[in-house]
Amino acid sequence: MPHRKPKRNPIGVLDSPAALALALLAAFCIGMSKAGFSGISLIAIFIMADLYGAVPSTGIMLPLLIAADLAVYPAFRKHGSWKPVWKLLPATLAGLAIGVWLLKVILVQESSDQVARRVIGGCILAMVALQAFRAWKPVLAERLANARSFGTAAGITGGITTMLANAAGPVIQLYLLSRRIPKMELLGIGARFFLLVNLVKVPLSGSFNLITPATLWDNLKCLPAIFAGIWVGKWLVQRVSQRAFEWLVIGFSLIVAGRLLLA
């Protein structure tokens, strides 16, 4: 299906102090998400969509996610293994293919950015609902996650949501938790999975003109905030209740999703 390439991200979009501050906050949230507070990445998705537009923001975020993945991977490489990643990969690749097709459908719409904002808002809302359900009904969530078909569903859903909105974290995390994997091993598997999947997405995003020299220059400006977020996240994860933090993120994310859906 032919598709229109999105407009190049505006040159100098981060020249404004306010815009740069928001982009740095988004990068900081990405770093914190990789250090253990996965739900806060949903706030970064909204900030970038507001700054750049819904579709271009996915290309802006991808190199930042890869930078964060590369930064945390050495810390977790001794934990977990690649075996669970290979099990999830076929379904995830199928989900990525569906996500690419959906992106092409979105881009031929006259109001493609508005459609994309609603799709991303819907993805965020679905991931928030999943997080809230897991926190509210942990036993039922674990029972559903242990169903034989859940691994395939998690991989496909993760592939679709990561291609459309870089929002696969909660569903993949739920799947790994359902395997009764120890915390450090879970972090090691997650680090491997997202590093691999995000690298696979690079040529896909490039084919939509979502990654350009201009976007990479903006990424470079945001790199210090990525590393700061990882450092603060590692410090906070030892001192702040994960449950309390997740509920706070859920509240903010509901506001975020509502704004995207109603924009």
From TrEMBL:
<keyword id="KW-0813">Transport</keyword>
<dbReference type="Pfam" id="PF01925">
    <property type="entry name" value="TauE"/>
</dbReference>
<dbReference type="InterPro" id="IPR002781">
    <property type="entry name" value="TM_pro_TauE-like"/>
</dbReference>
<feature type="transmembrane region" description="Helical">
    <location>
        <begin position="119"/>
        <end position="136"/>
    </location>
</feature>
<dbReference type="InterPro" id="IPR052017">
    <property type="entry name" value="TSUP"/>
</dbReference>
<keyword id="KW-1003">Cell membrane</keyword>
<comment type="similarity">
    <text>Belongs to the 4-toluene sulfonate uptake permease (TSUP) (TC 2.A.102) family.</text>
</comment>
<feature type="transmembrane region" description="Helical">
    <location>
        <begin position="244"/>
        <end position="262"/>
    </location>
</feature>
<feature type="transmembrane region" description="Helical">
    <location>
        <begin position="59"/>
        <end position="76"/>
    </location>
</feature>
<keyword id="KW-0472">Membrane</keyword>
<keyword id="KW-0812">Transmembrane</keyword>
<protein>
    <recommendedName>
        <fullName>Probable membrane transporter protein</fullName>
    </recommendedName>
</protein>
<feature type="transmembrane region" description="Helical">
    <location>
        <begin position="20"/>
        <end position="47"/>
    </location>
</feature>
<keyword id="KW-1133">Transmembrane helix</keyword>
<feature type="transmembrane region" description="Helical">
    <location>
        <begin position="156"/>
        <end position="177"/>
    </location>
</feature>
<feature type="transmembrane region" description="Helical">
    <location>
        <begin position="88"/>
        <end position="107"/>
    </location>
</feature>
